[in-house]
Amino acid sequence: MEPIQVIGGGLAGTEAAWQIAQAGIPVILHEMRPQQLSPAHHTEHLAELVCSNSFGAQASDRASGLVHEELRRLGSVVIAKADEHAVPAGGALAVDRAVFSRDLTEVLDRHPLVELRRGEVRHLPTEGIVVLTSGPLTTHDLAADLQQFTGLEYMSFFDAASPIIVGESINRDVAFLASRYDRGEAAYLNCPMNREQYLHFWQELCRAEQAELKEFERETAKFFEACLPIEEMARRGEDTMRYGPLKPVGLSDARQEGDRPYAVVQLRQEDKAGQLWNMVGFQTNLRWGEQTRVFRLIPGLESAEFVRMGVMHRNTFINSPELLLPSLQFKKRPTVLAAGQLVGTESYTAATAGGWLAGTNAARIALGHDPLTLPTTTMMGALFDFISSASAKHFQPMPPNFGIIPELPQRIRNKRERYGVYRDRSLTDLANWIKTHQLASATEPVASLA
């Protein structure tokens, strides 16, 4: 049997290759690193997390947590490894990113049906079954070839990564350990600001110098609203950050008495040892020197040591409503499938989910079976239905959210209760779907299958 080719070794590509191999089909997983690096990656490992180390909220009555649970029941290798290498993060599923990606690389590399081939793929293969997961930083040559294949222009937006700080350099006399509303384990370091400190920080952030964008980037730049650079957020108004990532509600320092802080900067643990901390919501395009100067104005970070500065880079995605079926097949050539941020889904969990569906359907096509579409009452199914049926004229990247799931027969006013019912319906419908299509749901740790 001819191997299926998967182009791109990110989260989607890693998941797709695993599902193909688990179906008994040989697969070639193409990854250009380390022969060629991208503007955002730093290692040669598969499934490298280039922005946050968090997969989002863990509770299954939250959108991202529901995708986690759906993927667990579908035998996702990425989520299994995320669970295995989780670090404390309050109510979020966050991982030790270095161990996580290294382990996934070893698991895929050991699989007898997976060939990990290093080097850039410049053209879409003209024959065979292909899964395209080249990501938001698809190389120029491949992007040009894909544009010719689709006959449509790319769209683009800008994504950004937050700085990471050495834990020992954080002033623990100022920063306090707590989770919002005391939910879950206290896993965030919180840097409190009074009004005077906040206003000074806000003013300097607005004045700070940004890194210069290239001409083609200036012409096409569109900020994705869910991932605004912190300086862009600051420019939108004095209080914008206080109603966003710096909101103080639900946070108090047990060592202090009195009113809550005027604003709070949260730091999330990056590794199991707690040696590295990520500045939550501080994706940025400021010059590195300006980042050091301005971010050290934050109480508790006066002597912060940065091991990675914030960066911003252009992401590209195709106009999926014009091009894709909800099975993630191209309408023009159904033996080519796509997944990940390239198709306009946003978040690590969405990329993993797309990789699962594209890989599963690629294997089914190879075996002569009909491709699958997930029930739209599941979060995964609703997301892929959305990107394949939204308005092509105004299409923008979409993360998992309850707004895209079909409404319930009866209206439930309480949001938390309503989301719980959405969750219950989703998991029930998924279980029935798995049974109908005679799929093997996960019954043992994925690591034992490698």
Q: Could you describe the 3D structure shown?
A:
The model has no long low-confidence stretch (mean pLDDT 89). Helix 2 (63-73) packs parallel to helix 11 (348-366) and helix 2 (63-73) runs parallel beside helix 13 (415-436). The strands form four sheets. A six-stranded antiparallel β-sheet has the order 10-11-12-13-9-14. A five-stranded parallel β-sheet has the order 6-2-1-7-16, with helices on one face. A three-stranded antiparallel β-sheet has the order 3-5-4. The chain folds into two domains: 4-154 and 318-449, FAD/NAD(P)-binding domain (3-Layer(bba) Sandwich); 161-312, Elongation Factor Tu (Ef-tu), domain 3, CATH 2.40.30. The protein is globular. It is built from 13 helices and 16 strands. The protein is α/β, with parallel strands linked by helices and 450 residues long.
Distance between the termini: 21 Å
Give the name of the CATH architecture of the largest domain: 3-Layer(bba) Sandwich
Structural class: alpha/beta
Radius of gyration: 22 Å
In total, the number of domains comes to: 2
CATH topology of the largest domain: FAD/NAD(P)-binding domain
The poorly predicted ranges are none
CATH class of the largest domain: Alpha Beta
Biggest sheet strand order reads 10-11-12-13-9-14
Q: What form results from the Cα inertia axes? A: globular
Helix fraction bin: 25-40%
Give the number of helices.
13
Provide the CATH superfamily of the largest domain.
FAD/NAD(P)-binding domain
% residues in beta strands? 15-25%
Describe the sheet with the most strands. 6 strands, antiparallel
Quantity of strands, as a count = 16
* H/E topology pattern: EHEEHHEEHEEHEEEEHHHEEHEEHEHHH
Mean pLDDT: 89
